[in-house]
Amino acid sequence: MASPEIDALTQALARLPGLGPRSARRAVLHLLKKREGAMAPLLRALEAVNDRLATCSTCGNVDTSDPCAICADTRRDGRMLCVVEEVADLWALDRTRLFPGRFHVLGGRLSALEGVRPEDLAIDSLVARIAHGGIDEVVLAMNATLEGQTTAHYLAERIEHFPVRVTQLAHGLPVGGELDYLDEGTLAQALRARRPVA
Amino acid sequence: MASPEIDALTQALARLPGLGPRSARRAVLHLLKKREGAMAPLLRALEAVNDRLATCSTCGNVDTSDPCAICADTRRDGRMLCVVEEVADLWALDRTRLFPGRFHVLGGRLSALEGVRPEDLAIDSLVARIAHGGIDEVVLAMNATLEGQTTAHYLAERIEHFPVRVTQLAHGLPVGGELDYLDEGTLAQALRARRPVA
């Protein structure tokens, strides 16, 4: 019995990940109640992003400028390049503030099942960036999944003839992880990669 | 390291009920990835609602027209009036499609603790609607909380001299409720209001 406009807004919100029909309705009610405090800022922010949205032609990051803020930042260490599957992974790693270098977004992972082949990913542009020189270390930060690791393997072979150090993220216990809740694969990795106590 | 525009959008989404910083980031990434399929519809829907948002001057519902769609609907049974605390409650009851009448939104509940007095709620306009005539039944659909029931009690006294039937929602076991998980208050209500098996 809500108006078609309100229904459309509820549906648009309900399609966001993490929101269902119920929480979308609650969100809409919140927006309707707080027109100045919530609706207006959201609308302005959405307009601003929609107007300026761009994919970085260097690294594949999504930002409001091309090159993106990371590629344009001269304080970044251009000698380190971190390769990730998706933009979300880039953001997650960047939030740690522990990686001083730049990124490269593949746009997915190799998958026989889903028919994703090397030419479907931003691999040629990655190889071109490495071939261009100036890079000392390439961090393969794929997901710890079968497909992620297959992709990392493939990339490692593709770039092994370049004079760069190729590394990957450590696998092991997640912080706060309790042994008896972890899967055997993680435990096996943690055991294999065990280190002397400092 | 995301642009200020993207940060602002993430923050605006994170303030919605049901979304936190983490899920807001995931939602933003989804919007950035699906510009045509998700971002554009959400932006259009938000603009449409923001442009036309109105509070119904009759019942207090929030809609894109005044009178709202419910008050304007001539198929609704004007002899039945359901009083609710908030717009969210109106929507929830209307979704059941079981109430054929119209609504009245109080805009809250009486609360000594929060200093909400009768004059802070849309009670005078409720009494005026009933005094205007044509209403046979008033359903007091307050929340089953102490404050909700206090409000219902107060309203019942305010309107008892009108020739209307005053009812309230049944209290008892929620559908799917298991006895040993329910609080004693609910069980006591369910027991007191027990009915002969049909």
Automatic annotation (TrEMBL), chains A, B:
A zinc finger (C4-type) spans 56-71. Keywords: DNA damage, DNA recombination, DNA repair, Metal-binding, Zinc, Zinc-finger. The keyword DNA damage applies. Residues 79-174 form the Toprim domain. InterPro entries: DNA_Rcmb_RecR, Rcmb_RecR, Rcmb_RecR_Znf, TOPRIM_dom, TOPRIM_RecR. May play a role in DNA repair. It seems to be involved in an RecBC-independent recombinational process of DNA repair. It may act with RecF and RecO. Belongs to the RecR family. This is Recombination protein RecR.
